[in-house]
Amino acid sequence: MAVELSSKSAYIIPLCPLVASCLTGSFSFFFPKATRSLRRLCAASNIFSLVVAMFISFVLVWKQTATHSIQQYLWAWIPKSDFRLKIGLLVDPLTLVMSILVTTVGLPVMVYSDSYMCHDQGYARFYAYLSLFTASMLGLVFSPNMIQIYVFWELVGMCSYLLIGFWFARSSAANACQKAFVTNRVGDFGLLLGLLGVYWITGTFDIYELCDRFLELTSNGAVNPTFAITVALLLFLGPVAKSAQFPLHVWLPDAMEGPTPISALIHAATMVAAGIFFIARIFKLFSTLPTVMSTISWVGGVTTLSGATLALAQKDLKKGLAYSTMSQLGYMVLASGIGASQSALFHLITHAYSKALLFLGSGSVIHSMEKVVGYSPDKSQNIFFMGGLRKCMPITGITFLIGTLSLCGLPPFACFWSKDQIITESWSNSLYLGLIASGTAGLTSFYTFRIYLLTFEGDFRANQINYMESYTFSPPEHVIHSWGGVQLDLPTKQTRNNFTSVDKKREELLEIANLGAVPTSNQFYSGRNLLYPQESNFCMVLPLIILAIPTLFGGLIGINSVQKGYGLNLLLDWLISILSFPEVHNHFEKLMEILISSIPSVSLSLIGLSISLKVYGHFDTKDNEKLGGREVENVFLVSARNWSLNRGYIDYFYKIYFVRSVTSISKLISNFDQWVIDGFINGTGAFNIFGGESIRHAKSGRISQYLFGLIVGTVASLVVDFPIPPLP
């Protein structure tokens, strides 16, 4: 009975952040001045609400491990009609795992946001949106039927729209949130059609009942196979847009216009995770149709590879991480398509902590860079303006390195265990999918370590660029080549006072540019007091340290090796039996077997990491190594760089063939409405006015004129009607 009551209390989990969001939003709307003075109290209330939700989630998980039960608590919503719908809660292992994921990632993000957003005028509004976002995702995972899922699905999309466009005064942020909203409309419309279709087939919206009936009807041949496949693909279209799968991924890099804490939450535990959760929730429905499963796997495979190639040469720190998220989500969808849904969920969890760590680390870097280069995303987020930040920001640098190595898939970090499972499953299912999964592992190591090297290693480059700009009337064009070289085009016009010094520095800079190295601050800027980024404060550093723990050990705790005969919880079994040497030896042998079987995938990751170190390691300019630019410059690399920087030309394709087409059709319809529809209505009105004016002038009010008109009309009618005799 106690277990039942504790499970029924699961409604408190989404309710806590929802109440906190409503209170914060209402208070800031009705009492704006009081909110500004008590905004820290508002933040504390939102954080406390998520702490309560997290605590209840852990209690329910502890109970779940003892009972292994699935429980539903339903209340009638539409009881008195032929169409009966119930709302409530579904408590099962998938729900509780996602609940822990959302709360444990959301809590560090909220703590981090207190310092990151402290100077923003929308501080309280941001926390209201953040809590509503978390509550919407928690409501989604606890939903027992498809209608309730769809409601919270739309709420998640609405919150992402509000948070991506949080700084709506910037045109780029306004355009980004509109792009995300419109792109997700495509997927959500497909999802709505799929929901109607699956209800027409099964007659129910309950998830478990729906999947069972769909399986029974398709197995018996009672449903047209083409119609069933169409309905399943329409359902899959929702996760394609929500989880940024090809070709509806174009909104994800632009979503980086929002504040960095929300970027971490979107990419780790809320919006993009909703699509993977939905696939896992109705996986039984998809698994009955091989065509649909094949489509899902190949969409995931294409997304995995394309996301990795698009991240190869990105200059924006957050956009590079965004394309990385796209690629890793492709891994999860690929795993779901080949039947490895548990591996997909495992990778969702390990990737969530690693990516949250990386995004919060990037926010720490951006927050510190803004004090040096100003509040311009083109500079504060440009990795070529950074370098050497590990010396200035050691905690951020170390934690960012931990997240990088985890994303690279190196043991013993979290993402290694989950990614290795997916690669193994891919090889056993399809040769081509195995090649894609393995090749992407090498590309992932290359671009993630590239981001780390350009950001944290070498010398700090922003001061060098800013210093040279002060010597000229116009700023010099300083372009650091995406593949490791440098191009410096200095203007020839100087003032009389600094002509000699700048000319000398120009010769030295061009000489270094020919060597393919970046000038060190000691070469030209000695004797000048330059600004350098500083380590972030405790409220921003603490979440990084906390998230680094599951990034290090999360894979060991959750490793799923049932297929190989291992336990579900390798690390806990190891710790429990630590006093028994034979048991420790047994677990050690199992661990070694896993590591040995993963040698091919780890080798590819090390190759990608080594190439990245070779190309970008010269940014440590103490020895002025001759690297890169000219030696690696060839047609293939230029094409790959242009492909990455131009986003695979997919945005251009959409702009030409979709945006312009829709705009042209809209203009045509507008002209038709203006000249034909409105023309007919306006013409009718003008004719009535003209006729009325004509009659008004004819009506003078004199009886003599009326009598004269009557006589003339009578005579005319008699003349017309009088028969004329024929001529003789």
From TrEMBL:
It is an enzyme of class 7 (translocase). Keywords: Chloroplast, Membrane, NAD, NADP, Plastid, Plastoquinone, Quinone, Thylakoid, Translocase, Transmembrane, Transmembrane helix, Transport. It holds the Pfam family Proton_antipo_N. The chain crosses the membrane at residues 12-31, 43-62, 94-112, 124-143, 149-169, 181-202, 262-283, 295-313, 329-349, 395-418, 430-453, 540-559, 594-616, 706-724. This is NAD(P)H-quinone oxidoreductase subunit 5, chloroplastic. The lineage of its organism: Eukaryota, Viridiplantae, Streptophyta, Embryophyta, Tracheophyta. Belongs to the complex I subunit 5 family. Residues 77-127 form the NADH-Ubiquinone oxidoreductase (complex I) chain 5 N-terminal domain. GO terms for cellular component: chloroplast thylakoid membrane. It comes from Pyrrosia angustissima. Gene3D superfamilies: 1.20.5.2700. The gene is ndhF. It is found in: Plastid, Chloroplast thylakoid membrane. It catalyses: a plastoquinone + NADH + (n+1) H(+)(in) = a plastoquinol + NAD(+) + n H(+)(out); a plastoquinone + NADPH + (n+1) H(+)(in) = a plastoquinol + NADP(+) + n H(+)(out). It is a multi-pass membrane protein.
